[in-house]
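Reminder to self: tokens first, then the designed residues, so the page reads top to bottom the way the pipeline ran.
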């Protein structure tokens, strides 16, 4: 009876999701204006996966109502160039796949006249659904740290280019645009987009860079914006300051690389120790066997 109730509830929920997906609710004018305003505020670029968001469209409002993905995770997604809708859609699809896979396997086993009971597939479905829901967050957390380190390395090169251009007699805005046009990669694409937005909106480039630093959670961009604003508003000479910031960034990156290398070396100690103990056991096994047989 419990299995019938659970399968009936699941079937009803599935039919409701199919109807919601086939006939999506219409967004009000107020909601569209809010979404348009939010899109205009963001400077960083991101990519969406249309098929994933289309499949998980009925679940996205509920996930957003729960406060997902969160401010920090949203910044991590921006620095990776991923959209929040795609991330929530992947979480929902993986959770549904983990939830349905054991139940489908249970159905196939029932057709083959193999009965395992209801408790095992339900427990496995709950575990796989939770794992599928949390796995994208863990992946984003790991990749965002590496993406920020790569952005800081690119920012160091960007500061060197700005310093060289300023030494050649260019103005602050011209130096920023010239330095952004030279580089390649995701970090320079974000910088170019921010500076182009500053030109189009007639906004000071340092304020746009500060907003970009806040969106991506990169404090070095905010510090760069503060230094450049002194040159743009107070007429201060910032060439020496930019060179010092570039050197400090490189020193910080080298220190992080050394720390990662030392951590990797320490992690290798456990496998080597286990290998050594296994080798000792392999050597001592014949002698121990002879002693035990002699007793």
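Designed residues (295 positions):
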């Amino acid at each position: 009876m419990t299995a019938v109730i659970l399968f009936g509830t699941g079937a009803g929920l599935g039919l409701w999701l199919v109807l919601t997906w086939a006939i999506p609710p219409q967004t009000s004018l107020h909601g569209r204006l809010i979404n348009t305003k939010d899109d205009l505020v963001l400077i960083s670029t991101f990519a969406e996966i249309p098929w994933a968001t289309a499949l998980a469209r009925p679940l996205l409002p509920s996930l957003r109502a729960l406060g997902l993905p969160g401010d920090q995770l949203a910044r991590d997604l921006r620095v990776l160039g991923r959209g929040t809708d795609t991330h929530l859609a992947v979480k929902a699809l993986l959770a549904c796949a983990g939830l349905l896979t054991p139940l489908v396997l249970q159905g196939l086993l029932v057709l083959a006249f193999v009965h395992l009971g209801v408790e095992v597939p339900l427990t496995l479905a709950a575990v796989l659904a939770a794992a599928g829901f949390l796995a994208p967050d863990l992946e984003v957390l790991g990749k965002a740290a590496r993406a920020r380190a790569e952005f800081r390395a690119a920012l160091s090169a960007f500061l060197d280019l700005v310093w060289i251009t300023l030494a050649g007699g260019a103005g602050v805005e011209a130096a920023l645009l010239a330095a952004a046009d030279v580089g390649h990669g995701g970090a320079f694409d974000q910088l170019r987009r921010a500076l182009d937005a500053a030109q189009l909106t007639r906004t000071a480039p340092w304020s746009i860079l500060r907003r970009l630093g806040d969106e991506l959670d990169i404090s070095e961009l905010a510090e760069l914006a503060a230094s450049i604003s002194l040159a743009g508003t107070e007429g201060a000479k910032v060439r020496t300051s930019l060179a010092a910031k570039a050197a400090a960034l490189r020193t910080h990156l080298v220190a992080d690389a050394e720390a990662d290398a030392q951590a990797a070396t320490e992690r290798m100690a456990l496998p080597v120790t286990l290998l050594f103990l296994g080798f000792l056991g392999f050597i001592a096994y014949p002698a121990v066997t002879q002693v035990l047989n002699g007793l």
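The radius of gyration is 28 Å.
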